[in-house]
Amino acid sequence: MAVYKFFPMFVDLNDKKAVVIGAGKIALRRIKTLLKFCSDITVIADRAEKEVHLLAESGVIKLYCRKYEHGDCKGADIVLTAADNREVNHAVFEECRELGVPVNVSDCKEECSFYFPAVIDDENVVIGVTASGSDHRRAKNTAENIRKLKNEIFNIES
To answer: Are 35 and 89 in the same domain?
Structure first.
């Protein structure tokens, strides 16, 4: 039986609603990346990094400081769950599966309908890097190498 990799696909999130469950370090990194592509981001978390609070205070995201409840994903076009709780992440996966909403589950690649890539962007060029959800360090290192190479190319051409 063949093992298939995920197909890289770029989608327009400009007028879409993203819901993020959790507001720790992983969620914060993903929120900051999403902000480059999506203007309607709702974050639900009982605890949040200070920077997440600052984003909410500035009106960039909506933050609800409470625990996840079934129904929080209704109306979302895309969901990321990065709660520090396996049961919560699994419940979000189950809700998204019921609703047919694409979901990324930070602690279980088998529950992901898409992988959240390392993103390199430069004006209109966007590059996404993933190691198929199995080697986050490799994806991160590859993305860092691409960023360095991009900077070297642009410095030479300048």
So the answer is: yes
> Among 26, 54, 49, which Cα is nearest to 116's?
26
DSSP 38-106: -SEEEEEESS--HHHHHHHHTTSSEEEES---TTTTTT-SEEEE--S-HHHHHHHHHHHHHHT--EEET
> Could you tell me the maximum CA-CA distance found in the chain, to the nearest angstrom?
53
What does the pLDDT read at residue 158? 46
Residue 69 covered by a domain: yes
Q: Are strands 62-65 and 118-122 parallel, antiparallel or unpaired?
A: unpaired
Distance CA(110)–CA(92), nearest Å, equals: 13
pLDDT > 50? residue 157 = yes
In terms of Cβ atoms closer than 10 Å to its own Cβ (0-12, 13-18, 19+), residue 153 is: exposed
Per the model's pLDDT, the better-predicted residue between 18 and 125 turns out to be 18
pLDDT confidence tier of residue 93, bands split at 50, 70 and 90: very high
Task: Evaluate if pTM is beyond 0.85.
Answer: yes
How many separate domains does the chain show? 2
Containing domain of residue 153, as a range?
A: 118-157
